[in-house]
Amino acid sequence: MQTTFMKILAQPNQHLKNDGEDVIQGLTKMMFLHGKIGILLCILSYLIATK
């Protein structure tokens, strides 16, 4: 679980240059990915709970 999380964290940083705009873009991409993961985890836990 944690290794995939770290890979997701590392992905946006690979494409970053040192420009401020790219850093902000990377951060928003990371936040978006984490948001998607959170939603997926919520759905999964809900499905497991309702079984």
From TrEMBL:
<keyword id="KW-0472">Membrane</keyword>
<feature type="transmembrane region" description="Helical">
    <location>
        <begin position="31"/>
        <end position="49"/>
    </location>
</feature>
<keyword id="KW-1133">Transmembrane helix</keyword>
<protein>
    <submittedName>
        <fullName>Uncharacterized protein</fullName>
    </submittedName>
</protein>
<keyword id="KW-0812">Transmembrane</keyword>
